[in-house]
Design goal:
By secondary structure, the protein is of the alpha+beta class. The protein has helices at residues 3-17, 23-33, 41-48, 57-69, 111-123, 140-145; strands at residues 39-40, 73-76, 81-84, 95-99, 105-108, 133-137. A hairpin with a 5-residue loop joins strand 4 and strand 5. Helix 2 (23-33) crosses helix 4 (57-69) and helix 3 (41-48) crosses helix 4. The two termini are 30 Å apart.
């Protein structure tokens, strides 16, 4: 999806949520929009420094925290990386397929998986506050190159 369209949608979500989409937050969002897979905070910092030379790690971490709170990004827990969600303006369950070879990440939205997960947690009296479901393997592109 085109970056400008994503930014426009993000602005609308922020406006509806009463949240400030500051220039730094938007710049980090734009950097994430240009990446197919996940990226780490320090890699983002290096890219951000090209336009914001005074940027520090805290700058990026605050922006990532905001983007996560707004539902704009997913954290890939196993690699401590971040991935832009292209479906952030609609509430949805997300599961991530992570290629261990190229690092590409594909986002799935399975309501069935989510319902089963929620039902089992509820049966145990467990309240889920945050959830990331990841599956690691080799993507189609990498497996066809072997």
């Amino acid at each position: 999806m085109h970056t400008e369209s994503l930014v426009s949608r993000a602005r609308t979500v922020c406006q509806n949520n009463g949240a400030r989409f500051t220039s730094i937050r938007e710049k980090v969002f734009r950097l994430l929009a240009k990446i197919d897979g996940g990226i780490g905070a320090y890699e983002l910092l290096e890219q951000l420094k090209q336009t914001e030379p005074a940027a520090k790690p805290a700058t990026v971490y605050r922006a990532l925290e905001f983007l996560t709170e707004q539902g704009f990004i997913h954290k890939i827990e196993s690699s401590n990386a971040f991935l832009l969600c292209h479906h952030f303006d609609e509430h949805h369950p997300a599961q991530l397929l992570v290629c261990d070879k190229c690092g590409n990440v594909h986002e799935l939205h399975s309501d069935v998986l989510q319902q089963e997960f929620d039902q089992q947690a509820q049966a145990l009296g467990f309240t889920i506050s945050h959830q990331t479901i990841e599956a690691h393997g080799i993507c189609n592109k990498c497996s066809s190159e072997e």
